[in-house]
Design a protein that fits this description.
This protein is α+β, with helices and mostly antiparallel strands. It is built from 13 helices and 22 strands. It comes from Streptomyces phaeolivaceus.
């Protein structure tokens, strides 16, 4: 009989999990991806991705995982050919961190970021998977629950969709879809805890850290002459004792700037177009506001409140069924400002593929081992995200521990040193881009450099070239729109 894997959700995590499963030609004969939304045939928004209109960045770790899962697909080339940008984190961005402006390095940058709209990235990955792995099939259907017992999941209860039907419209009663392995990649809105409860598995531990972040995003036409202006980021200061406000300008395909502003509880942006530029000018530095002051807006302001950090510890459940793995945002969600979500999804899918190659589909404990491997990736991103958000006023959820306070003090000191030390900055970038373990920051050499302090004095303003300063001056003097 053919061995079937079912992936619930054609998200980034879902499509890359499908690629990981389809690569195991000796283990899986067919991969069926269930997706309740109608998927666009070209880059475009979809209902099941409410945060997709805001800023997204693909980290180098995520890109490497995609290249391993879909070898030869040329996802990077597809994105660049479609207008995506590639910028080095230590050399190509202008960033005001919590402790000051980071210098732009002249060293070879080992932390390249791929910058594009989420619509384009999703389409490029989905197209690459479907073209490169013909055994992957997408079905327009919704999952209603899991089949099986607390010991083993044996499939999914589904309802098929009609072409052109809404996300909640089925064609009739549910049907049973048998599978040797089920992957839940349904994201923030996952119902897997309810499905597990129906099988008799309850008590999944959960942590929440919610700083009440609101995102406001607007797309602008890139001003003439500013096509090569670097991405600009003014971050929030979690140690400032005030609501954290931040702003980010990203060049994306189509000659556009995607501008995302954010504020924690008590400092939220609004959807009013007239408030957008003043909010940006009122950040810790007016760089973002000056850049967009005279730019032509192409969209209205779009708000999102789906920003809380939430972690489900499936890997610590006392019981876990064979035949079920949960990946991506269904495991953990993070404040989007840290740009980790897509890369964590890719890394989790890669871990599933590697575990399948090591032991085979029928090996006892495969699901538990794959869940634990995915959890390690989620933990790294979770620690960085909540390590910042838990300090903002009005945060709800888990309270900082003594260890959190000590670590925060050390990271704060290291961030200050990183503004004047390339070696410390590069080491922090390796961790924040998920290229290495956070223990790297406790290496004796870094401990010493952090204790000694920055090599260079702090910058008094953004690290811009003379041409970039001229562009900023001209844009800042433009009439507001």
């Amino acid at each position: 009989m053919p061995r079937t894997a079912v992936v619930i959700g054609a998200s980034m995590a879902g499509m890359l999990a499908a690629a990981a499963l389809a690569r195991s030609t000796d283990e899986v004969d067919e991969v069926i991806v269930l997706e309740r939304d109608e998927l666009p045939g070209e880059p475009g928004p979809r209902k099941g991705l409410p945060q997709g209109r805001h800023a997204h960045i693909l980290l180098p770790s995520g890109r490497a995982a995609i290249e391993e899962l879909v070898p030869g697909s040329g996802v990077r080339k597809r994105l660049l050919a479609a207008g995506a940008r590639e910028r080095g984190l230590t050399s190509g961005l202008v960033t005001l961190g919590p402790q000051g402006w980071y210098r732009r390095s002249r060293h070879h940058d080992t932390h390249p970021l791929l910058i594009a709209s989420r619509d384009l990235v999703d389409w490029a990955v989905r197209d690459a998977v479907l073209v490169g792995t013909p055994r992957v099939e997408i079905r327009h259907a919704s999952a209603l629950g899991l089949l099986g017992t607390a010991d083993r999941v044996t499939g999914v209860r589904v309802t098929e969709k009609e072409h052109g039907s809404g996300a909640d419209a089925g064609t009739g009663a549910g049907a049973d879809l048998r599978a040797d392995l089920v992957v839940d990649a349904t994201g923030r809105g996952t119902r897997v805890e309810h499905w597990l409860a129906d099988l008799g598995i309850t008590g999944i531990r959960k942590d929440v850290v919610d700083a009440g972040v609101v995102y406001a995003t607007r797309v602008y036409r890139t001003p003439e002459g500013a096509e090569d202006f670097p991405p600009a980021h003014v971050t929030a200061d979690p140690a400032g004792g005030r609501p954290g406000r931040a702003g980010l300008v990203l060049p994306i395909e189509g000659g556009r700037w995607l501008v995302s502003l954010s504020g924690t509880r008590g400092g939220e942006p609004t959807a009013a177009p007239d408030d957008f530029v003043p909010f940006a000018r009122g950040l810790r530095h007016p760089l973002v506001g000056r850049l967009i002051a005279g730019a032509e807006p192409l969209t209205d302001v779009l708000l999102s409140r789906s920003t809380r950090n939430e972690r489900r510890y499936f890997e610590k459940s006392a019981r876990w069924p064979e035949g079920l793995v949960v990946l991506g945002d269904a495991v953990a969600t993070y404040n989007p400002v840290y740009g980790q979500g897509m890369s964590v999804a890719a890394l989790g899918a890669r871990e599933l593929g590697r575990e399948l190659e090591r032991t085979g589909l029928g090996a006892p404990g495969l699901a538990r081992r794959a869940q634990r491997a995915a959890a390690k990736v989620a933990n790294a991103a979770w620690t960085m995200s909540v390590g910042q958000d838990q300090w903002f006023p009005g945060v709800r959820g888990r309270s900082p521990t003594l260890a959190d306070r000590l670590l925060s003090a050390y990271i704060g000191r290291m961030s200050r040193v990183a503004t004047g030390s390339y070696r410390v900055s590069a080491a922090m970038c390796e961790v924040t881009t998920l290229q290495t373990d956070a223990l790297r920051l406790l290496h004796p050499t870094l401990l010493l450099r952090t204790a000694l302090g920055p090599v260079l004095p702090p910058l008094s303003g953004p690290p811009l070239t003379p041409r970039e300063r001229t562009i900023l001056r001209d844009l800042g003097n433009s009439a507001p729109r």
